[in-house]
Structures are given as C-alpha cells and as structure tokens.
Write a structure and sequence with these properties.
It contains 7 helices and 4 strands; from the N terminus they run E-H-H-E-H-H-E-H-H-E-H. It has 170 residues and is an alpha+beta fold. A 4-stranded antiparallel beta sheet has the order 2-3-1-4. The protein is globular, with a radius of gyration of 18 Å. It binds adenosine-5'-triphosphate (ATP). Pfam families: NDK.
Amino acid sequence: MLLFGSPVSTLPVRATEHTLIAVKPDGVQRRLVGQIIHRFEQRGFKLVGLKMMQASEDLLSEHYREIVKKPFYPLVRAYMTAGPVIVMVWEGSNVVQSSRKMVGPTNGAEAQAGTIRGDFSFHVGRNVVHASDSTEGAQREIGLWFQENELLNWESCDQDWTIEANEDKQ
Ligand SMILES: Nc1ncnc2c1ncn2[C@@H]1O[C@H](COP(=O)(O)OP(=O)(O)OP(=O)(O)O)[C@@H](O)[C@H]1O
C-alpha cells in the first residue's frame, strides 16, 4: 500500500551538499551550541567539521564581502569579533536550502517560531547563527574557515559504533 501516493524510489535524488553553519558569539555566550547542533543532527544531517575560533577582522570582511560596504557593517564586525564563534560544516541532501529554512529570516523579530532565529532571537544584530545562502557561497565560505584536512570524509569511516541492544551484555 502506498500511504503518500508515490513510491519512495520516485523521490528526486539530489547530490550531497555541504554548508557552513556558524554559531555567532551571542549563541556561544548564551550556551545555545548544543541545542543548535541537536537540531541539525535531528534533521539527519552529518557533521563533517567543527571548531571554535575567534574571527579576525580580515576573515570576517572576506566572509561578509557582500555587506562590507553597508552602513551597518561596523556593527556586524563588532558583534562577530566580540567573542568566539563555533563554525561547522554539515553534509546532506539539499542541506543549504534546508538549513536556511531551519535558521529562519535574518531578523529574529520576523522569524517564525520553530526556526532557530524565531526561537532564540528577536534582533537583527543578535541573530545567533549564520547559514550559507547558496551552494556556491557555501563552497567559498567553507574554504575560508576550514583547511581541507579538517573535514571528515564519512565514506572512509567504515566502523559502525552503533551498539545493538544485546551486544553490551557480553
Ligand atoms: N540592519 C542591520 N543592522 C545590524 N546588523 C545587520 C543588519 N542587517 C544585517 N545584519 C547582520 O549582518 C548579517 C549578514 O546579513 P545578510 O544580509 O547576509 O543576512 P543573512 O544571510 O540572513 O545572515 P548570515 O549571512 O549571518 O546568515 C546578519 O545575519 C545580521 O547579523
């Protein structure tokens, strides 16, 4: 019986993508890192890179090169360099677009409950997370924040650490 009308095999198969997610200094200071990671794990995406770092002004102006000339950019620079950030690379089908939906609109005041910004932010200048906005942007940002050898290739990890219910009794 087909509950939803079409067999699973007709679902579109998308190539695996990567995206850059960052927990901004306010998210780190407010101890939201675990909850944010949990949402991406729960959705089924794979974490392939993670580190905590203090963003330099140069790295940040390269990362935000599209807004660096905007009048509010000095506020963004002060905010993003005020403390450490957690940067992560997540892998999965359609992860770029899905992550943007999970994060919600830029201004937390306009973000729906259930999105990360909708649940944890109400101010555009303290919006807790960053998510790449396109696959090309993601590739560029991942290259800025990570060295290639800092990213895990899950396919080369053939060890299955799942413990079966009766295994741990041995
Ligand atoms: N008017 C503003 N005043 C203060 N900060 C702003 C303003 N507009 C944007 N920002 C900050 O600059 C960041 C980058 O803006 P952008 O327009 O690229 O939004 P975004 O793509 O939703 O955010 P991000 O790139 O951080 O995921 C925003 O996340 C926000 O922190």
